[in-house]
Amino acid sequence: MTCANPPHFADSVDLDNTCSSHLADKPLRIAIIAHYLYPIAQPYAGGLEMITQLLCDELVTQGHDVLLYADKDSRTQATLIPMLTRTEFDKTVHANEHKALGMSREEMYQYVLYQYVLRDAIERDERGEIDIVHNHSLHHVPMLTGQAFGSRFITTFHTPIFPQLRLALLTLRHGTKTQFTAVSQHQQRLFSEYVSSHVVYNGIDVASFTANTDVPVDAGCDDEVYFWYGRICPEKGTHLAMQYCMEAGKKLIIAGPKSNEDYFNEQVAPLLSKDRKNKAQPLFDYVGHVTKDEVNRYLCQAIAMLFTSTWDEPYGLTLAESLACGTPIIGFDVGASAEIVTPNTGVIVPKEDKKAFIQGFTEVKKLSRQACRKRAVQFCSVTTMVKGYLALYIKTLEKSHQTPPLATPENSPLSLNTLNNLNISNTSQQQLTPWLGADSEATTLTQEER
């Protein structure tokens, strides 16, 4: 099956031409659509919530007018437009209405919630109050109803292709004027079967991390220590980091919530027990669920951060956080890891290649911690991320000013009434929850469910 709009690839949005635009110095009116499941507030439930807040707050700091459609308990410098609450939903929908439609009540709630969001955005746009709509919802309704905005509607892909996303993509692959961004080239390739996209890498608040740009211990010293952190679950490969350290005789601090108790009990706990029994000086120290400041401190003390994810993470915020602390990385070549970690900031090896990983313990000591911090500032910062999005916003508006006005919702080929006839996907809250911001760790370790 061929796409009506063949995908194209680009390393990233062109940042160099932004300042030359006549729109570059003018405040933009930007509507941001968040995912409904969690508030956009600290402590973050995941990386998606963190990215959304950082984007909104930095845009406001730079003088832009930002509307944020999000959970009512969100905290933001933008103007918060609270999403429909479950209580409000229950007051307007009959108790068994979802059964008549062949969906769960949660699915119906999501569907109605995002219809409300898009209806409000369309009405504001008709009053001339919105320039750009930027969708981070992970839901098909905004992607389809957003056709009313044409190219001024931008969706960012943060996750694998879940059924809700696929439902929209199967339609949009036949042609759409809306635009898409991916948080890495790996993510861009994943979605290229359906639509083309621009790459705008995620950004973190680099300035909020204290960096140690001096080697914390002498190579080969008994105090040499490494650090692993994240959700303790199969796809993060905690046990692999432990096995490699055990074989190489390296000390490892492990931090993170037990998000999969069975995995912890079957794969991690036996290694902790074996380490305590066989070593006069144990190699492993499991410190549990820790705060961002504690993660920062452990990273500054570590020779390197160990990245053993066995799934293709769309971005990998732990990598950016480690670099921000001046800490190089030994990690698997999965997802976007090789895009974030350069040869002078880490050692990237084939997935589950034990020999290459253990060799990395020697190679990583040759790397400059100053280079790691520099990489974070230049490539992984929220400033760089926002600069990329602003470049896309401005280019989009320049082009849209040269085209006829957009159709109104009533005569648009894909209107709200059309959307009411679409079937909902079977993706449940439980399916989505494990992946919302799944590659954020320092910002999520105060949430037990992560």
Structure notes:
Helix content is 38%, strand content 12%. The chain is α/β, with parallel strands linked by helices and 450 residues long. The strands form three sheets. A seven-stranded parallel sheet has the order 3-2-1-4-5-6-7. Strands 8-9-10 form a three-stranded parallel sheet, sandwiched between helices. Strands 11-12-13 form a three-stranded parallel sheet, with helices on both faces. Strand 8, helix 8 (238-248) and strand 9 (251-255) form a beta-alpha-beta unit. The longest helix has 22 residues, at 105-126. The two termini are 38 Å apart.
Descriptive tags:
single chain, 450 residues, alpha/beta, 7-stranded parallel β-sheet, 3-stranded parallel β-sheet, 13 strands
- Output the structural class: alpha/beta
Strand order of the largest sheet: 3-2-1-4-5-6-7
Mean pLDDT, to the nearest integer, reads: 85
DSSP helical segment count: 17
Name the overall outline: globular
Question: What are the low-pLDDT stretches, counting only 5+ consecutive residues below 50?
Answer: 1-11, 403-441, 443-450
The biggest sheet amounts to:
7 strands, parallel
Written as H for each helix and E for each strand, in order along the chain, the element string is EHEEHHHEHEHEHEEHEHEHEHEHEHHHHH
Helix content: 25-40%
The total beta strand count reads 13
Separation, N- and C-terminal Cα atoms: 38 Å
Q: What oligomeric state do these chains adopt?
A: single chain
What is the radius of gyration?
23 Å
Strand content: 5-15%
